[in-house]
Design brief:
Blueprint: E1 3-7, E2 10-14, E3 57-58, H1 61-67, E4 72-76, H2 86-99, E5 104-108, H3 112-124, E6 127-133, H4 138-146, E7 150-154, H5 158-172, E8 175-176, H6 183-189, H7 191-199, E9 207-211, H8 216-230, E10 239-245, H9 250-255, H10 283-293, E11 296-300, H11 302-316, H12 326-336, E12 346-350, E13 367-369, H13 373-382
């Protein structure tokens, strides 16, 4: 790593780019750590204990036939340890923390990032302190707590949960895994772009479609593809299309140059809770990435999201939650709108699937409703 630049309000790490940074062999299986020369902390053994990344790129022949798209691919991130792409960011942040003697990691989340953080922390032997909205799905709360995390529910919603988590990281010296705040989250997620390039025979797709909530997933794809260009390994980047739910589409409206109304900023009205973010952490960077790639933003209906879930299961064998299936819902919208040609090479990023807790119930004393850091501190100190 050679430094960083600030772009659209977000720190971006930079490297001394050359083709030598990318591995030359083509293994049958691999993990995210294959790209360590393009990640911070490249020296020494990896201490994070779970395998991350190296997820399959699926041709889905039945889906190709149904849609009339012979070059359609599915990047299936549900194959990660906690069934979502959030495992990548968690792994790199905890790896950095282990190298620096940190014993606690915190994040705010609508669900999947919290689950990834809880299980990743448990595997690595560090404490996880999670902040979520009080309307977070009970099944996801159960998984977090069952993995041993401290879970704090915040009445004022996700944005307030982010503020508390970030404040706790600064006040108590914890690892801050918050999406869009820690640049390592972008670094980890950009490895998806490297994998797609390698899995397509060191070629890039014409279009890549991804769900967008806070924004780091799409911004990371843009950074990964840009770094392949900077390394002299390709001369272009794919068009990026970001997808949001029609009931929570702040960035789609911004893309269209229109202010969202109340019905378009209602996270409780969509099943796609993983991308239901009213105040995207790095929204400006998302719009810049989409614009720079020649792509677009699109919003999809609840009906389209549910249809995409069923189609992925029935015609691709991929289980996905509504937010995870948003790329397929967005594809249909993009084709109808003339944004994508059916003969182009298109990759859909499926970001996650539904997971449920099993076995013994979680310890209820590890969860509380809080509004201030003082309350957080009292709960933690009272349960030592």
């Amino acid at each position: 790593m050679t430094g960083s630049v600030d772009l659209a309000g977000m720190e971006r790490l930079q490297y001394d780019y050359s083709s030598a940074l990318m591995p030359q062999d083509r293994p049958d299986s691999f993990t995210m750590w294959r790209y360590r020369k393009l990640l911070p902390g490249a020296d020494g053994p990896v201490r994070y204990p779970m395998p991350i990344g190296g997820t399959p790129l699926l041709p889905a022949p039945a889906l190709r036939q149904t849609l009339g798209m012979p070059r359609l691919w599915i990047k299936d991130e549900t194959r990660n340890p906690t069934a979502s792409n959030k495992d990548r960011a968690t792994a790199l942040v905890i790896e950095d923390g282990l190298r620096n003697g940190k014993d606690t990691i915190t994040t705010a989340s609508t669900g999947n990032a919290a689950i990834a953080t809880a299980f990743g922390a448990a595997a690595a032997g560090v404490r996880a302190v999670i902040f979520v909205s009080t309307d977070c799905q009970p099944t996801k709360l159960a998984l977090m707590a069952q993995a041993g995390a401290w879970v704090f529910r915040v009445p004022d919603g996700y944005a307030a949960a982010v503020d508390l988590s970030r404040g706790a990281a600064r006040t108590f010296g914890w690892l801050d895994r918050n999406t869009g705040a820690n640049p390592l989250t972008i670094e980890a997620k950009k490895t998806v772009a490297f994998e797609v390039w390698e899995q397509l025979g060191r070629r890039l797709p014409d279009v890549m479609i991804a769900p967008v909530g806070d924004g780091p997933t799409l911004v990371a794809l843009d950074k990964g593809f840009a770094e392949l260009v900077s390394c002299g390994l390709t001369t272009r980047q794919p068009r990026l299309i970001g997808v949001q739910a029609e009931h929570c589409q702040p960035l789609v409206r911004a893309w269209l140059g229109m202010a969202p109304g109340p019905a378009e900023l209602d996270p409780a009205a969509t099943l796609a809770d993983g991308i239901a973010v009213v105040r995207p952490a790095i929204g400006d960077a998302v719009l810049e990435a989409v614009r720079g790639s020649g792509g677009a933003m699109t919003a999809v209906t609840e009906r389209a999201l549910l249809s995409a879930v069923a189609t992925l299961a029935g015609e691709a064998g991929v289980g996905a939650e509504p937010a995870g299936a948003a790329a397929l819902a967005g594809l249909e919208s993009a084709v109808e709108g003339g944004l994508v040609d059916r003969l182009e090479t298109v990759v859909l990023l499926v970001t996650g699937r539904e997971t449920k807790a099993g076995g013994r119930p979680a310890e209820p004393s590890r969860s509380a409703v809080v509004e201030t850091l003082d309350e957080v501190q009292r709960v933690l100190e009272g349960n030592r």
